[in-house]
Amino acid sequence: MLYLLGLSGPEALASLEEQIVTDSEFYDELQIAEDELIDQYLSGELSETERERFEHHFMRQPERQKKVRFGQALTQYVQLKASLPAAEATGAEAVQQRREVPKPPPKPWYSIFLPSQNPLLSYSLAAVLLLVVAGVAWLVMRNLKDNRSEPGAVYAVVLSAGTIRSGDPDQRRSIKVPPGTGTVSLKLSLPRKEHQTYRATLLSDAGEVAAADNLQPQSEAETYFIVLNVRARLLPRGAYLVRVNGHLADGSVEPMPSYQFLVLP
User: What distances in angstroms separate CA 179 from CA 108, 147, 174, one per listed residue?
Assistant: First the structure.
């Protein structure tokens, strides 16, 4: 953390920078440390001095600034998602209250074709219809972010983690989705098989694009990878980041190096 905040001495700084260039495993560990430091900054765990060094030293590099923006967007998404159970509980209480209202006497079967003369009943029907429409819309939005393939051609892209060292966005893997593509299959290379399952989350400047849990590692030519399938229409022109976590035996998760790429028009 001292190095990332610019608090290392001259001798230690020279040694660390040499190790970053020559030791790929150390570089991967440094990328994970960057992600953890960003999480601590966003959650308010840094001291006042550390927060000042983070904003004036750590965020000098454009690539780190983009990581922070991704983290802020993800935090806002999680907070929004956490507020949904409270709204659902309020809706359940309203339904229960409606159930406790005494039922009117039975009407003839043909009355269903007549306009209601009871304003309360009319408003109740409108509220139920609104709840149904909102529920269907929520299911549609959730299904847009699953890991299933969509009809059409499948375009496979191989991505490696921790390949950008200078912060130059031009060094990101650039892809151009061919016309007629239904699904973009992101093959995320793993340095080694360390976990039984993984979770991958695809992010853009606007927030979460797609996510998949319990991804099983696959092998091909003595290399390991996981696959995140993304619907092609969810990948317009822009920059993207894939965050990967490995699931440990005790149920906790371990952050892995991230993957970055650009979608060209």
Answer: 58, 21, 16
Q: What does each of the 265 residues of the chain score in pLDDT, given as a tens digit?
A: 666 676 666 677 677 767 666 777 777 777 788 888 888 888 888 888 888 887 878 777 787 778 888 877 777 777 777 766 655 555 556 556 555 656 666 655 445 544 555 555 555 655 666 665 666 455 445 544 445 556 779 999 999 886 444 444 445 689 999 999 999 999 999 977 788 899 999 999 989 999 999 999 998 887 899 999 999 999 999 999 999 999 888 878 889 889 999 999 8
224 CB contacts (<8 Å, ≥6 apart)?
Answer: 189, 190, 192, 193, 217, 218
Rounded CA gap, 175 and 30, in Å? 27
CA separation for the pair 182, 230 (Å, rounded): 9
Q: How far is Cα 235 from Cα 156, in angstroms, rounded to an integer?
A: 14
User: How far lies 264's CA from each of 61, 170, 175, 237, in Å?
Assistant: 23, 12, 6, 5
> What's the distance, Cα to Cα, between the start and end of the chain in Å?
38
Q: Are strands 259-263 and 198-204 parallel, antiparallel or unpaired?
A: unpaired
Please tell me the distance from the alpha carbon of residue 212 to that of residue 119, in angstroms, as a whole number.
46
CA angle 248, 215, 232 (to 5 degrees): 145
